[in-house]
Design brief:
Blueprint: H1 8-28, H2 35-48, H3 64-76, H4 81-105, H5 112-122, H6 134-149, H7 158-172, H8 178-200, H9 203-233, H10 237-254, E1 258-259, E2 262-263, H11 264-285, H12 294-310, H13 325-361, H14 367-385, H15 391-395, E3 399-400, E4 405-406, H16 408-420, E5 427-431, H17 437-440, E6 444-445, H18 459-472, E7 476-480, H19 487-496, E8 497-503, E9 508-513
Parallel strand pairs: 5-6, 5-7
Antiparallel strand pairs: 1-2, 3-4, 7-9, 8-9
Helix pairs in contact: 1-4, 1-5, 2-3, 4-6, 5-13, 6-7, 7-8, 7-9, 8-9, 8-12, 9-10, 11-12, 12-13
Length: 514
């Protein structure tokens, strides 16, 4: 029998995967606490009760993340564990694709272990890599798209470009910022086609690239096109367009920040344009070691486009940075590959500082305290798994919402409201950030706006909610104290409902109809 012999790179890869699993597995049994997850689950629950996405229930992202929660609910109920397992599986597949891509691009695998390790740390809790966020899904499909193309050869079959575009399109159907990854690839293929034309003076070379770009674009559009047909057949096409496309731009422009009075959208755009022009010029001149071939040029352009997508809104949500994990990791690989030991030392120092900032940014206290808190969280996770501590004690490690409630809060509210319902046909309306209540309750949720953030300072939407209450007259209203005022709701509650109880130290009021 032939003895199995592993190379040092395969051993490094296996070691990274094992470390990743030890750090990632505790996330599988993390409680349902994160607000975004609660919104996705709640909308999945609405769809399960017959609501049409965007028309009868609302959020401003592409549809795939909501339908993922909907199908998960059909198969497993409201539990999020299957989706956490899916993320672990996709993460390992991402490692495999990345490993194989590095084998194609790098001679000697300089810095190989470090690069895989950089992906590992992106996918654990220092930048919210344990949450079921759209970024963790679309980055896998982006990487799969890149793997299909690998060396950007225009002689590849058109089917490969189509399927690469299809994979990218699936990623876009999870979050629109993935379209910047697609735009980077389209832009670079256009540059390659123009460069080939300049070298050969043959239009056929340019046409080959253009036809490849067209096939890639068709693949990109197909998932959203199929969704559009679905919503058209269900008389919700306008709502789909509003929710998937128009509201995203509104969401960005409304809450955009500024630096010294200048919008971050403009600053981000200026940076992207100047950087792109500079990199194109350096690539065409072939005078910079980092820009000698098509792979390095694409990676640098991809990083710029991805940076634009990450910072487009100007909001400091750390899970946005997940979009950078692949292009940034490959850029790091190039630096190490070109500069050898000096590059490795420089990158390790920079990476350590960035990770310290990320950990500090999503926790409280000093960096040392943040590292300690992360270690304690892992210890508590394994203690809970082996029955050393109770579920309630474990859930108290997780906080949610503007009132800093623990992960016990949605269950406590749902248990109370369920006791008020003699029938699953009873209806409930939830105002606040405890979106997980809609998933835990046995009642039927009503009113399309899940998050109070979506209706703040918008009288039209607030009026729509009051009309919804008039039409459905839910048995229970759960009203959480919120920084977003809703005076008409308070008046409606006083006129049509009795205050049954206050929970969670007075932060949540339970109203029952008269």
């Amino acid at each position: 029998m032939k003895k199995l012999k592993l190379s040092k790179y395969q051993i490094a890869f296996i070691a990274v995967v094992i470390i990743f699993l030890l750090l990632k597995i505790p996330a599988i049994w993390e409680p349902e606490w994160y607000i975004d997850e609660g919104i996705y689950s709640s909308i999945g629950n609405f769809i399960h009760h017959g609501a049409l996405l965007y028309k009868d229930t609302w959020d401003n992202k592409p549809p795939s993340i909501y339908f993922l929660f909907f199908f998960s609910r059909i198969i497993w109920g409201f539990h999020i564990i299957p989706l956490k397992i899916l993320i672990v599986v996709l993460s390992i597949l991402s490692f495999i694709l990345f490993y194989r891509l590095l084998r194609k691009w790098f001679v000697g695998y300089t810095g190989f272990f470090y690069i895989l390790a950089s992906l590992l740390f992106v996918r654990i809790n220092n930048i919210e890599g344990t949450i079921v966020n759209a970024e963790l899904f679309f980055t896998f499909f982006t990487l799969a798209s890149l793997y299909l193309l690998q060396r950007f050869d225009e002689e590849k079959s058109k089917a490969k470009f189509f399927f690469a575009g299809l994979s990218m399109g699936i990623g876009i159907s999870f979050k629109m910022t993935a379209s910047f990854d697609a735009a980077a690839l389209i832009f670079v293929l256009g540059i390659f086609g123009y460069e080939s034309y300049l070298q050969t003076k043959e239009k056929s070379q340019l046409l080959k690239y253009l036809s490849s770009i067209l096939m890639f674009i068709l693949g990109c559009f197909l998932p959203l096109f199929l969704y559009a047909i679905y919503f058209y057949l269900n008389h919700g096409l306008d709502d789909f367009i509003q929710g998937t496309f128009l509201s995203n731009s509104g969401y960005v422009s409304t809450y955009n920040n500024s630096i010294l009075g200048v919008s971050t959208v403009y600053l981000n755009s200026i940076f992207a344009i100047i950087s792109s022009i500079l990199i194109i010029w350096l690539y065409l001149k072939r005078k910079v070691p980092f820009l000698q071939d098509k792979q390095s040029f694409f990676i640098m352009m991809w990083l710029i486009f991805a940076l634009y997508g990450v910072f487009l809104s100007g909001r400091p949500y750390t899970h946005y940075l997940i979009q950078l994990e692949v292009p940034a990791s490959i850029v790091i690989a190039y630096i190490i590959y070109k500069l050898r030991t000096k590059g490795l030392i420089a990158v390790i120092i920079i990476y350590a500082l960035l990770n310290a900032y990320f950990i500090r940014n999503v926790t409280t206290g000093t960096v040392i305290e943040a590292l300690r808190d992360n270690a304690v969280l892992y210890i508590h996770s394994y203690q809970y798994a082996f029955g050393v501590i109770s579920e309630k004690s474990y859930l108290n490690n997780f906080y949610l919402g503007e009132n800093n409630l623990t992960a016990n809060a949605p269950r406590e509210v749902a248990n109370y409201t369920n006791a008020l319902s003699a029938s699953g046909a009873d209806k409930i309306y939830l105002w606040g950030n405890l979106s997980w209540v809609d998933s835990f309750t046995t009642m039927t949720p009503i009113c399309k706006y899940i998050n109070n953030f979506d209706v703040q300072n918008i009288p039209k939407k607030q009026t729509e909610i009051i009309h919804c209450l008039d039409k459905n007259y839910p048995k229970v209203i759960v009203d959480e104290n919120s920084i977003y005022s809703f005076p008409d709701l308070n008046t409606y509650e006083q006129s049509h409902y009795n205050l049954a109880n206050t929970l969670l130290n007075g932060t949540v009021r339970i109203y029952v109809r008269k």
